[in-house]
Structures are given as C-alpha cells and as structure tokens.
C-alpha cells in the first residue's frame, strides 16, 4: 500500500498488518526483518478480514469471533517474527475494529482477553481516551495512548469519520503545527468545538495515505526542530500502566 521500506527509516514503531485487512506471510516476514534491522519496534495490527475495504468497514462479528480474529492474526505475526529474528511488542487494532473497540467495552474486553491469551507480555496501543484504553488499564496491562498526525478529531475525542470533511489532514505543515501546539498545551483542536485534552505516548501516520512518507519525514523533522525528542513509546516509563 505504500513505501514501507522508506517509511521504516523514519518511524520508531510500526504497526504491521497480520493477514486480515492486508499482509501475507512473505510481507510480514520481510517487514519485520526490515523493522528489526532499523531498531523499529514492531506491533501487531489486526483488523477485519476485509481486504476490499482495507479493514475500514465494520463487520458485525460476535464477541467470540473478535477474540479469535485478534488471537489468530497476532499469533501469525509472532510466528513470522520468529522467522525474521524479530519480536512483536504490542497490539494496536486497525481501522473499523479499532473504532468499534473505542466505543464498545465488550469489544475492547475481547481484544484484551485475546491479547493476554496469546502473550501477557504484549502491550496495548489504544486511541487516547477510548474504551480500549480503559479496558487495558483495568486488566492491569501495559497500555499506551496514541494520537494521529493525519486525522481530524471530534469534540467527543473520536476521529472524524472518513466520509466527512476534515477527516484527513494531507498538508504536512498543518499536521506538524497542530502536533506542536498540542504538545505545548495538551489540547487537541477539533472540527466541531473547542480543543480537548488527550494523553499521548505515540503519534500515528497512516502508511497507506498518499504522501505518507513526506508526512512522516516532515512531522519528525519539525518535532525535533521544536526540541521534542522522538523515540519508541515502549522505551518510556511504565507509569501509565
């Protein structure tokens, strides 16, 4: 979907598709090897088995089916990591699955159960302020909060649906300016109201978006110019546990 090799030279953590919305054995092994060579922390990125919709359409699974999807996709990536000489450190749900878990606690709990069943050592990367974030904390898991460089926010703290204006930010300068303002104030601008407080340990850039590499390069450069150190979130303290 994008220039994975080039973008792995820029990011510090990578969410790797596990064969659901995208990815296959060869792609998973190759991407994990490239990440490991560059010191990029790898995470499992399970999503709905919906390649046509790239995992961005809600598939009405049962709670048990959600558990099975997350466990089997994560397990597949961990098997690929064993071949690549790499390690999977965390789970971050993709697309419509992530948005579903953001609002529905039973779905969030299912993802937590599946993660713990596969490996209790895996951390959770969750959209800031969501049910998945809360469920992980209640379960005693290591959880990190993320914000998005290239997505708009609603005043509820949720992402603007991709079908609506303001969902995507394509201008790297706009994205970087917004992030620097957020990191200075703790408040994220919204499309429909006043800025809102969010926690953040990680900043996401979507690798499949047009101009993703330019976005990642510009955002990282501008953050560093502003005196903000960029590094893998899993090297941070565990006070957020």
Automatic annotation (TrEMBL):
It holds the Pfam family LamB_YcsF. InterPro entries: Glyco_hydro/deAcase_b/a-brl (IPR011330), LamB/YcsF/PxpA-like (IPR005501). It comes from the Bacteria. One of its GO terms (biological process) is carbohydrate metabolic process. PANTHER family: 5-OXOPROLINASE SUBUNIT A, UNCHARACTERIZED PROTEIN YBGL-RELATED. NCBIfam families: PRK05406.1-3. This is UPF0271 protein.
């Amino acid at each position: 979907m994008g220039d994975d090799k080039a973008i792995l030279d820029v990011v510090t953590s990578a969410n790797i598709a596990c064969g659901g919305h995208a990815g296959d054995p060869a792609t998973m092994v190759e991407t994990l090897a490239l990440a490991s060579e560059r010191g990029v922390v790898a995470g499992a990125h399970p999503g709905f088995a919906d390649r046509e919709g790239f995992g961005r359409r809600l598939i009405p699974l049962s709670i048990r089916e959600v558990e099975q999807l997350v466990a089997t996709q994560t397990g597949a990536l961990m098997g690929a990591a064993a071949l690549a000489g790499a390690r999977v450190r965390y789970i971050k749900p993709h697309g419509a699955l992530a948005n579903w878990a953001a609002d529905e606690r039973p779905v969030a709990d299912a993802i937590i159960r599946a993660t713990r069943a596969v490996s209790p050592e895996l951390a959770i990367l969750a959209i800031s302020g969501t049910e998945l974030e809360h469920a992980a904390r209640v379960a005693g898991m290591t959880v990190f909060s993320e914000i998005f460089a290239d997505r708009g926010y609603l005043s509820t703290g949720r992402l603007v649906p991709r079908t609506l204006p303001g969902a995507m930010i394509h201008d790297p300068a706009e994205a970087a300016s917004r992030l620097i303002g957020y990191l200075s104030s703790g408040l994220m601008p919204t499309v429909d109201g006043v800025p809102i407080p969010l926690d953040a340990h990680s900043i996401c850039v979507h690798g499949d978006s047009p101009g993703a590499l330019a976005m990642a390069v510009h955002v990282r450069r501008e953050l560093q110019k502003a005196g903000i150190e960029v590094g893998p979130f899993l090297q941070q303290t565990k006070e957020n546990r």
